Protein backbone atom coordinates (compact mmCIF):
# COMPACT_ATOMS: atom_id res chain seq x y z
CA UNK A 1 0.00 0.00 0.00
CA UNK A 2 1.38 3.39 -0.99
CA UNK A 3 0.86 6.13 1.56
CA UNK A 4 -0.71 9.40 0.46
CA UNK A 5 1.36 12.25 1.92
CA UNK A 6 0.42 15.90 1.77
CA UNK A 7 2.92 18.72 1.73
CA UNK A 8 4.20 19.94 5.09
CA UNK A 9 2.28 22.71 6.85
CA UNK A 10 4.08 24.99 9.31
CA UNK A 11 2.86 26.69 12.48
CA UNK A 12 5.16 28.85 14.61
CA UNK A 13 4.78 29.27 18.36
CA UNK A 14 6.88 30.57 21.22
CA UNK A 15 7.37 28.36 24.27
CA UNK A 16 5.53 29.86 27.23
CA UNK A 17 6.84 29.65 30.78
CA UNK A 18 3.89 27.53 31.97
CA UNK A 19 4.77 24.90 29.34
CA UNK A 20 8.10 24.15 31.04
CA UNK A 21 8.80 21.92 34.00
CA UNK A 22 11.17 22.16 36.97
CA UNK A 23 14.07 21.13 34.69
CA UNK A 24 13.45 24.20 32.53
CA UNK A 25 12.37 22.22 29.48
CA UNK A 26 8.98 21.78 27.83
CA UNK A 27 6.88 19.25 29.74
CA UNK A 28 6.35 16.25 27.46
CA UNK A 29 2.54 16.39 27.37
CA UNK A 30 2.67 19.86 25.79
CA UNK A 31 4.00 18.37 22.57
CA UNK A 32 0.68 16.54 22.15
CA UNK A 33 -1.11 19.90 22.39
CA UNK A 34 1.29 21.28 19.79
CA UNK A 35 0.57 18.35 17.49
CA UNK A 36 -3.12 19.26 17.77
CA UNK A 37 -2.38 22.89 16.98
CA UNK A 38 -0.54 21.72 13.86
CA UNK A 39 -3.43 19.46 12.78
CA UNK A 40 -6.01 22.19 13.32
CA UNK A 41 -4.01 24.73 11.34
CA UNK A 42 -3.38 22.23 8.53
CA UNK A 43 -7.12 21.61 8.18
CA UNK A 44 -7.75 25.36 8.25
CA UNK A 45 -5.15 25.94 5.52
CA UNK A 46 -6.86 23.29 3.39
CA UNK A 47 -9.92 25.51 3.43
CA UNK A 48 -12.20 24.11 6.10
CA UNK A 49 -12.50 25.03 9.73
CA UNK A 50 -12.66 22.19 12.26
CA UNK A 51 -15.85 23.77 13.59
CA UNK A 52 -17.44 23.14 10.17
CA UNK A 53 -16.49 19.47 10.39
CA UNK A 54 -18.25 19.23 13.75
CA UNK A 55 -21.29 21.07 12.36
CA UNK A 56 -21.57 18.22 9.83
CA UNK A 57 -21.84 15.85 12.82
CA UNK A 58 -18.30 14.47 12.41
CA UNK A 59 -15.69 14.05 15.10
CA UNK A 60 -12.08 12.97 14.72
CA UNK A 61 -10.85 11.38 17.96
CA UNK A 62 -7.28 10.24 18.38
CA UNK A 63 -6.91 6.46 18.38
CA UNK A 64 -3.11 6.21 18.52
CA UNK A 65 -0.18 8.49 19.31
CA UNK A 66 3.49 7.80 18.66
CA UNK A 67 6.09 10.25 19.93
CA UNK A 68 9.89 10.30 19.91
CA UNK A 69 11.74 12.89 21.96
CA UNK A 70 15.07 13.97 20.50
CA UNK A 71 16.06 17.27 22.14
CA UNK A 72 14.02 19.39 24.55
CA UNK A 73 12.59 22.81 23.78
CA UNK A 74 13.08 25.49 26.42
CA UNK A 75 11.27 28.57 27.63
CA UNK A 76 11.03 31.36 25.01
CA UNK A 77 12.26 29.18 22.12
CA UNK A 78 10.47 29.93 18.86
CA UNK A 79 9.54 26.47 17.64
CA UNK A 80 7.91 25.38 14.42
CA UNK A 81 5.27 22.66 14.34
CA UNK A 82 5.57 20.77 11.05
CA UNK A 83 2.49 18.74 10.17
CA UNK A 84 1.37 16.72 7.18
CA UNK A 85 -1.23 14.17 6.31
CA UNK A 86 0.55 10.82 6.28
CA UNK A 87 -2.39 8.86 4.92
CA UNK A 88 -6.16 8.87 4.88
CA UNK A 89 -9.21 6.92 3.83
CA UNK A 90 -12.94 7.44 4.14
CA UNK A 91 -12.68 6.05 7.71
CA UNK A 92 -9.27 7.14 8.98
CA UNK A 93 -6.85 10.04 8.95
CA UNK A 94 -3.18 9.84 9.97
CA UNK A 95 -0.90 12.82 10.60
CA UNK A 96 2.86 13.06 10.90
CA UNK A 97 4.25 15.81 13.12
CA UNK A 98 7.61 17.28 13.97
CA UNK A 99 8.56 20.08 16.32
CA UNK A 100 11.69 21.86 15.18
CA UNK A 101 13.90 24.73 16.21
CA UNK A 102 14.54 26.79 13.08
CA UNK A 103 16.91 29.66 12.54
CA UNK A 104 15.39 32.96 11.45
CA UNK A 105 16.66 32.29 7.92
CA UNK A 106 15.00 28.85 7.85
CA UNK A 107 11.72 30.36 9.08
CA UNK A 108 11.84 33.05 6.39
CA UNK A 109 12.60 30.43 3.72
CA UNK A 110 9.28 28.76 4.48
CA UNK A 111 7.51 31.90 3.28
CA UNK A 112 9.61 32.47 0.18
CA UNK A 113 9.88 28.99 -1.33
CA UNK A 114 7.37 26.62 -2.84
CA UNK A 115 5.04 24.44 -0.76
CA UNK A 116 7.18 21.33 -1.14
CA UNK A 117 9.97 22.41 1.18
CA UNK A 118 10.99 19.68 3.62
CA UNK A 119 11.39 20.53 7.31
CA UNK A 120 14.80 21.86 8.29
CA UNK A 121 16.31 22.95 11.55
CA UNK A 122 16.96 21.02 14.72
CA UNK A 123 14.50 18.16 15.28
CA UNK A 124 13.14 18.29 18.83
CA UNK A 125 10.20 15.87 18.71
CA UNK A 126 8.69 13.68 16.01
CA UNK A 127 5.53 11.67 16.05
CA UNK A 128 2.28 10.62 14.49
CA UNK A 129 -1.36 10.59 15.41
CA UNK A 130 -4.03 8.27 14.05
CA UNK A 131 -7.70 9.23 14.00
CA UNK A 132 -11.01 7.69 13.00
CA UNK A 133 -14.07 9.53 11.68
CA UNK A 134 -17.06 9.08 13.98
CA UNK A 135 -20.50 10.61 14.41
CA UNK A 136 -21.71 12.24 17.63
CA UNK A 137 -22.58 8.79 18.98
CA UNK A 138 -18.95 7.76 18.42
CA UNK A 139 -19.90 5.28 15.73
CA UNK A 140 -17.47 5.07 12.80
CA UNK A 141 -18.68 6.82 9.65
CA UNK A 142 -17.45 7.11 6.10
CA UNK A 143 -16.41 10.71 5.81
CA UNK A 144 -16.65 10.58 2.01
CA UNK A 145 -20.41 10.04 2.30
CA UNK A 146 -20.95 12.52 5.15
CA UNK A 147 -18.90 15.42 3.76
CA UNK A 148 -17.79 14.77 0.18
CA UNK A 149 -16.37 18.30 -0.07
CA UNK A 150 -13.94 17.62 2.78
CA UNK A 151 -13.01 14.26 1.31
CA UNK A 152 -12.26 16.04 -1.99
CA UNK A 153 -10.03 18.55 -0.18
CA UNK A 154 -8.06 15.71 1.45
CA UNK A 155 -7.72 13.94 -1.88
CA UNK A 156 -6.46 17.10 -3.54
CA UNK A 157 -4.02 17.79 -0.69
CA UNK A 158 -2.51 14.32 -1.05
CA UNK A 159 -2.36 14.13 -4.84
CA UNK A 160 0.93 12.82 -6.12
CA UNK A 161 2.59 13.76 -9.34
CA UNK A 162 5.25 11.58 -10.99
CA UNK A 163 7.94 13.93 -9.65
CA UNK A 164 6.71 13.39 -6.08
CA UNK A 165 7.30 9.64 -6.11
CA UNK A 166 10.75 8.67 -4.89
TrEMBL record:
Keyword Hydrolase: yes
Protein name, per record: Thioesterase
Calcium listed as a keyword: no
Entry keywords, A to Z: Hydrolase
Molecular function GO terms recorded: fatty acyl-CoA hydrolase activity
Family per record: Belongs to the 4-hydroxybenzoyl-CoA thioesterase family.
Annotated NCBIfam families: YbgC/FadM family acyl-CoA thioesterase (TIGR00051)
Pfam families: 4HBT_2
Amino acid sequence: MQLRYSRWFYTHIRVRYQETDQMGVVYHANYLNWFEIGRTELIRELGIDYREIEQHGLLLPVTEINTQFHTPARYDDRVTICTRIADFSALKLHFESQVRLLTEEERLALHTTNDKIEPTGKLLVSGATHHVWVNRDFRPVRMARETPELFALLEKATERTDSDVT
